[in-house]
Design brief:
By secondary structure, this protein is mainly α. It has 18 helices and no strands. This is Transmembrane protein EpsG.
């Protein structure tokens, strides 16, 4: 496929996924619900499985790793146990690398879909899935393991607000089987009183100020801490400074359009502890994202765990703003989502997913 064909292709896949996700929750027939739900998960998963050579780490990391595990019985992988076991499972079945890609994507999309369904009374599940497809789907071609971990943690947040520590811990452990960085969300369970309840919003604001200080001084604080912990030393390079911070249009486009509507709708968000928690996580994600403007690209990966609530908040904004007769603001927010999709993946070529290439060519 050429550049424009790839853009149309990804757009169609995103729309079909979103349409099926919406139909799965709107249909009253159980069989139809199952049919549309399966389509919503299978369409993007098969697209990811059928790809060839695209995604920055496809040929550099994941395919060589699969070959090493396939050809060397005693090969010791540096990757997390769950991902290694999934590789070995696919190999034991006599299947090839595309099956592994499919299964990882299937796991990722499944937990995103199940996570969005939790909020179906508050938002359009289809619109939430579309936001995911535009912001994170092509990203998942690159950061496969972390994308799976992110989706599991996104689903697991339901147990933070319902105060079920064992289930949240179990899902966090499962997420860590794919990417150890999932541990970064575990403290959120114990900080729920601070970020899930409006009662302590002053303390929350103080914590944001402290977090901003930490982020702007991460090279002297966070970098040595990670570097001193054996299991996390590999991730310490994510915090290696490369430049000084400077404001740019990118800082604005990736933060303000997603935060401002939340402040406008703060009264509505406060009524639902789940939404209030997600908005506070988004604030932290935007703060963490500041590090991406002073370090290597990988730093932004830390922020993704806190930014993924965008897929819930954007459709929530759209519905709430429509009720306030301010639909144009919701349209503007989604326009920024669409702009970031075009800019990141097609203009800047992030994650190297364009042009789309399949195993059939």
């Amino acid at each position: 496929m050429d550049f424009y064909s790839s853009m149309i292709f990804y757009g169609i896949i995103s729309l079909l996924t979103a349409l099926n996700a919406e139909c799965s929750v709107r249909s009253r027939d159980i069989r139809a619900q199952g049919f549309f739900a399966c389509n919503a998960v299978l369409i993007p998963s098969l697209t990811a499985g059928f790809r060839y050579g695209i995604g920055t780490d496809y040929l550099l990391v994941y395919y060589p790793e699969f070959q090493n595990l396939q050809n060397h019985i005693h090969y010791h992988s540096r990757m997390e146990l769950g991902f290694v076991l999934l590789n070995r499972f696919v190999i034991a079945l006599g299947c090839g690398f595309p099956v592994l890609l499919f299964l990882v994507s299937f796991l990722t999309i499944l937990f995103v879909f199940l996570g969005l369904k939790q909020y179906r009374k508050k938002l359009s599940v289809g619109l939430g899935m579309l936001v995911f497809m535009l912001l994170y789907y092509q990203l998942s071609f690159d950061i496969m393991r972390q994308a799976a971990a992110m989706s599991i943690e996104f689903y697991a947040l339901k147990y933070v607000t319902s105060r079920k520590l064992f289930r949240f811990s179990a899902l966090t452990a499962f997420a860590c089987c794919f990417h150890l960085s999932a541990l970064i969300l575990f403290p959120v369970y114990f900080a729920h009183f601070l970020y899930g309840k409006p009662k302590y919003q002053v303390l929350a604001m103080i914590s944001y100020a402290a977090l901003i200080f930490l982020v702007l001084n991460y090279n002297r604080i966070l970098y040595p801490i990670l570097g001193g912990i054996g299991s996390l030393r590999y991730y310490s390079d994510y915090l290696r400074a490369t430049k000084s911070f400077s404001f740019s249009i990118g800082v604005f486009a990736r933060t303000v359009p997603f935060l401002l509507p939340g402040f406008l709708l703060r009264r509505e968000l406060k009524r639902d502890s789940r939404m209030f928690l997600l908005f506070n996580l988004l604030i932290m994600g935007c703060i963490f994202r500041l590090m991406a403007y002073t370090t290597i690209y990988f730093t932004e990966r830390i922020a993704y765990y806190f930014l993924i609530p965008q897929i819930v908040l954007v459709p929530t904004y759209c519905r709430q703003l429509k009720e306030r007769k301010k639909t144009w603001i919701g349209i503007a927010v989604f326009a920024f989502v669409f702009f970031l999709w075009i800019y990141d993946y097609f203009v800047m070529g992030s994650c190297q997913t364009v042009p789309y290439q399949s195993i059939f060519h």
